[in-house]
């Protein structure tokens, strides 16, 4: 089943806020409906946001909206993953050619996502097997699986490809507070894949690595700056520090559309700050403040390699 799709002139997507308890597919018929789905993380993950951006512009055209205005709103629904505005721009570029050309381009972005992610998954798996051999134990963070793309996944796509090659050992995953993309979504996908896995609290990730329980860390990315800094779900940076200390590879898996040559480095990326209510609750005293950074920056020098659908980048400046 696809995470997001185009059916009969409308967008259909899995509402990820309901997983793992309920697998519900919802129809999205307006750009405002799509923006709402993006903001509340019903659809999430950088590649899926790219596809949502592309399909959203096609939807605006089908609905006879002011396409430029809707595209602008859509681009800003979430600020950090560059794929969203990339997907919007891809389809907006066909504006002069009419609605059918825009729909065609959006569907092309969608189909391409599947191919690109399975390519990068297989490339990443080969890279790991060349270095680590068989039975590779992996640590991952957040959800960079099929649910973050159309199908297959990026970091979890590498895990899938390791499984295909019978080279996968155990998978450790951080629960990924506060919205639990690891504990809810990655664990759900791993269970469906029949992969042995263990959920740990986010702050235990570095200890898992220090104890030699994982041979490599594999994560996705929301934006990769021109200098190779990687922006990904909050909690990625401590894992990279711990991987460097433990002397194990830290692999970032992302499609080329996540690379943003217009952003010089991680410091230039807008980091989404989400509602404090996601952190505060009955367990915190009234009046406490919360700072809910959704992403962090991992400096390029902590990254062993970035695998994309076209290449492996390690240590060289990005083209
Ligand atoms: O806030 P989210 O759930 O959209 O954050 C997702 C991540 O940080 C993923 O790791 C990233 O988008 C890569 S997904 C292939």
Automatic annotation (TrEMBL):
Its EC number is 5.3.1.23. GO terms for molecular function: isomerase activity. Pathway: Amino-acid biosynthesis; L-methionine biosynthesis via salvage pathway; L-methionine from S-methyl-5-thio-alpha-D-ribose 1-phosphate: step 1/6. The active site is at 222 (proton donor). Substrate binds at residues 44-46, 78, 181, 232-233. Pfam families: IF-2B (PF01008). It catalyses: 5-(methylsulfanyl)-alpha-D-ribose 1-phosphate = 5-(methylsulfanyl)-D-ribulose 1-phosphate. Keywords: Amino-acid biosynthesis, Isomerase, Methionine biosynthesis. It comes from the Bacteria. The record marks 142 as: Transition state stabilizer. NCBIfam families: eIF-2B_rel, PRK05720.1, salvage_mtnA. Catalyzes the interconversion of methylthioribose-1-phosphate (MTR-1-P) into methylthioribulose-1-phosphate (MTRu-1-P). Belongs to the EIF-2B alpha/beta/delta subunits family. MtnA subfamily. This is Methylthioribose-1-phosphate isomerase. It comes from Kibdelosporangium persicum.
